[in-house]
Design goal:
The protein is mostly beta strands and 92 residues long. Helix content is 0%, strand content 36%. Belongs to the MsrB Met sulfoxide reductase family.
Length: 92
């Protein structure tokens, strides 16, 4: 499942089939469906990445990190610290 190729509507927001979400640009594995949860944002929401090298992060502002593909640098959005479904979890 390709992640982050927004073209007029995010097709994976309400998709909860088992699988791995990959970068739309290079196919690098990013997130597991086991880390996906329902959220009110228009994007799919995940609590964690598949592996430590799945994404690269840099601080954009307090509480928000800019997230890119760990392999090719494709922009994936943000990690919002302490905004996950449980206390202390992030939301990607």
């Amino acid at each position: 499942m390709s992640f982050c190729s927004f073209v007029g509507g995010e097709v994976f927001k309400d998709h909860f089939q088992p699988g791995i979400y990959v970068c739309a640009k290079c196919g690098h594995e990013l997130f597991s469906s086991r880390a996906k949860y329902e959220h009110s944002s228009p994007w799919p929401a995940f609590t964690e990445t598949l592996r430590g090298d799945s994404v690269a992060k840099r601080e954009e502002r307090p509480g928000a990190l800019k997230v890119t593909c760990g392999k090719c640098g494709n922009g994936l959005g943000h990690e919002f610290l302490n905004d996950g479904p449980r206390r202390g979890q992030s939301r990607f």
